[in-house]
Amino acid sequence: MTAVDQLGIALFNNLESVAIADQHGIRFADKLDDAFDPATLYLTNMSAEIGFLPISEEQQKRLLNERALSVRPSALAQDLGWPSHVSDGEIELKTSILSAIRQGYLSAIFRAGITVSELVMMNPSEFLNLIYSRTMPKDYRGEAWPDITLSERTAEIHAWVRTGLEPPAGHRIRTLSVNRSVFYNACLSQPIPTGLWEQGDPSATQAMILGNMSESQGVLVKGKLEPPQNLAFLPSCTTIEDRDCYIAHEVASIEEEGGHLRIADWWSGPLTAVKHPLEVHYEASLGDAILLEIVHRSWRKNTETGYWLACTERLMLHGIAEALNAAGIKILGYGSGRITIATPSNADDEAQQDKILSDYIRPLALQIPINSNWTPEDIKWRLPMLSYMQRYFLCGNDVMPNLDKAIDSAEQSQIDSVQVQAKQAFQALFDGAL
User: Fold this and answer.
1) Which end of the chain is more exposed for a tag (fewer CB within 10 A), N or C?
2) Phi first, then psi: what are they for 143, rounded to 5°?
C-alpha cells in the first residue's frame, strides 16, 4: 500500500468534474479515473457526497471531508473570488486560488507541527483535539466550573444564529467572512477562565454579580433569561438552543439591553491570557489566518473553557451584525466567523450596498468576498474592504503562496523579498500603497 504523505486540494464542480492542486501542480479533470495521486490526501469541498463519487473505496478514503481541518477550503476560495463557471479567464483565476489555498493549508499544519501522515487516520474531532493538545498549555485545561453539566457546557458551541429573515425578491445571499488574521488574533488574545472558580452568594443581585467582573476576574451565571423587548435587532444572547448559562459579558449586555436574568447560581474566578500560538503573526499570510482559526476552534470545542470562548465569539459577531443592521444591511444570520446578508442581484445595486459597507468593513474586522466579475476599477475603490491577505492575492505571480513558503523557511531575507515584490506589484496594478 502506498504511503500517504502529501496534501492536495480537490474542489468538485459535481460528482464527475474536479479542480485539483497537489505536488504535481494544478489540473482540471472531467473524469475522476486516475485523477488522484495515491500518495496524496486531498481536502475537498464535499461531505457525505464523497461516498457517491464514481471511484474506488480506496480512493474515497484519501478524500477528506470539507470540515476535516475545520476551516473549509470552499470558504477560502469564495473569499478569493472563486467563479461559479469556467471560461479561459476563470481557469487562470482558479489556478491561482488553488495554488494559494494548498500552500495555506500546508503552512498551517507545518506551523502546528503536524504531518500529513498524522492526518490520514484522523476524523475532524481528533484533529481539533490534537491542535488543542499542542497549543493549549496544561495549566489552562482544568474545569473552571465542574458543577455545570457537560451538556450545559457544550450546548453553546452550536453558535449559528438565524435572524428569521429571508432574502427579498431580487436579492441573493452573500457571506461576509471575518478578516481571519485580525478577528481570531483578537479572540486568542483574550483572557480565558483558569483555576477552579468559586461559587457566589445565591442572594446576590445582577448588579452585585457584575461588580465582580474585571479584565482579570470573570463571572458565569446560571439562570432563566427574560429577554429584552422591542429591540431594533435580535437580543445579544439569542441562540438556536435554549440555555441557562451566561458569561459575564453576556450578563452585562443583557442588562444594557433592558433584559433580566432570574439568577439560580453563579461563579467567579480568574481570567488569564494564554500564550499566543504564533510568536510572529503575518496579517497577509493565509497559512497564519487558517491556523489562527483552527486553533480558536480547537479551544472553543474543548469541554473546559470552550463555552466561554464560544459565547465570546458569538457576542462579538452579534455586535458586528447589529452595526450592519443599523446601517440598513439586511442580516440573515451570523456565527463561526461569518455573517450572511441579503445582497441585490443587480451589479449596480450591489455596488451601492458595498459603498454603505465601506464605512464598516475594516473597523469591524470583516472582509468582502472578491467577485471575479469586477473590473480593475471595481476592485480599486473596494480595496479598503479587502484584507491584506486578499490584496496579496490580487498582486498575482504567486505572491501569496510565496509569502507562506518564505515564512516557513524562517529566512527573513526571503520574507522581505516577497513583501517588496508585493508592494511593487500592487503599486503597478492599483497605483497605491499596499
Assistant:
1) N
2) -80, 120
Which DSSP state fits 49? Answer: G
Kindly state the cell numbers that stand for 56: 474506488
Kindly state the cell numbers that stand for 36: 488522484
Q: What are phi and psi of 106, to 5 degrees?
A: -60, -45
Show me where the domains of the chain are located: 6-130, 191-272
pLDDT at 371 over 60: yes
Range in 153-167, 176-190, 398-412 the model is least confident about: 153-167
Q: What is the pLDDT of residue 142?
A: 72
Q: Give exposure, 28-41, as e/b (b: 16+ Cβ within 10 Å).
A: bbeebeebbbeebb
Classify residue 96 by its DSSP letter.
H
Query: Contacts from 409-417 at CB under 8 Å and sequence distance 24+?
Result: 415/282
| The Cα angle at residue 347 between residues 345 and 351, in degrees rounded to 5 | 110
Closest CA to 101 of 35, 37, 19, 215: 19
Confidence band (pLDDT; 50, 70, 90) for 187? very high
Q: 195 near 142, Cβ under 8 Å? A: yes
pTM above 0.90, yes or no: yes
- Go through 72-111 and write b for each residue having 16 or more CB atoms within 10 A of its CB, e for each that does not: bbebbbbbbbbbeeeeeebeebbbbbbbbbbbbbbbbbbb
Residue-wise pLDDT tens digits, 62-101: 999 999 999 999 999 999 999 876 665 689 999 999 999 9
CA gap 94, 77 in Å, rounded: 9
CB atoms within 10 A of CB 395: 24
**Distance between CA 220 and CA 194 in Å, rounded?**
13
The share of the chain scoring above pLDDT 90, in percent, equals 64
DSSP letters, 203-219, are T--HHHHHTT-BTTEEE
Q: Which of 96, 34, 104, 38 is nearest to 69 (CA)?
A: 104
pLDDT of residue 240: 76
Phi, psi of 130 (to 5 degrees): -65, -45
Q: Which residues pair with 28 in a beta bridge?
A: 19
